[in-house]
Amino acid sequence: MDQIALTRIAEALERMSPAPLETPDFNAASAFVWHVGPERLEPVEAVNRVDLDLLVGINRSRDTLLENTRRFAQGFAANNALLWGARGMGKSSLVKAVHGALAGDHPELKLVELQREDLPSVARLLNHLRGSQHRFILFCDDLSFSHDDQHYKSLKAVLDGGIEGRPENVVFYATSNRRHLMPRDMIENERSSAINPSEAVEEKVSLSDRFGLWLGFHPCDQDEYLAMIEGYCAAYGIEADAEDLRAEAIEWQATRGARSGRVAWQFFTDLAGRHGVALR
């Protein structure tokens, strides 16, 4: 076999087995996104988040997650957390806001976002984080599983850590619309068709039990919805007639058919635009 053929074979093997990921410079940013193909931790220059004080109507969840994260940042024991419940009520915003509130006093605290589709690579990601002097919040947004989805098995590597155990410097936060991370009809189908119904769903349902913290988010009432908008107006210096603001906000949520923190922010974005205010 000539040299050219050997060179081509060697290049093909390198493409099939890329070089191991070098340990990134974790001082380059306070947040990173995990990518695969090729695997890399990409720094995020500016995290898209709101201030913690602007999250209204979720005081208990806010205080619980903040204290859990503070203990973790200080090097003490902390729980993995599942934030579940209604859409648009600030689950992912709370995770990012809590990190932002603590990162100033604890620069070693880093936020690493992981996509659900990339869960099979999580063991390799943990190997890059293990042993670092930094502390990492591994964050997966909108986590859920369908009936034929096997990604939940990879998640156990984060929650339980296998024989090595979860790295001491990593805690896992996830958000989901589902308390048990799987649709109710899937649970019922498993129970009705399995030889042993209780065992059929135990493995998947018990996945949520591996989170030490369950923080529930529920639809807001009208007073909380209006308080969110008033808080945004105060934070960005927008002055408006109280009655007009109330009427416009109620009309906005009526057209959307729902009230939530997301709807409140969407109304405020429109209001800020009409007042010539840029949101940064």
TrEMBL record:
Domain of life, per lineage: Bacteria
Gene3D superfamilies given in the database record: P-loop containing nucleotide triphosphate hydrolases
Record-linked InterPro entries: DUF815 (IPR008533), P-loop_NTPase (IPR027417)
Stated name of the protein: Putative ATPase (AAA+ superfamily)
Gene source species: Leisingera aquaemixtae
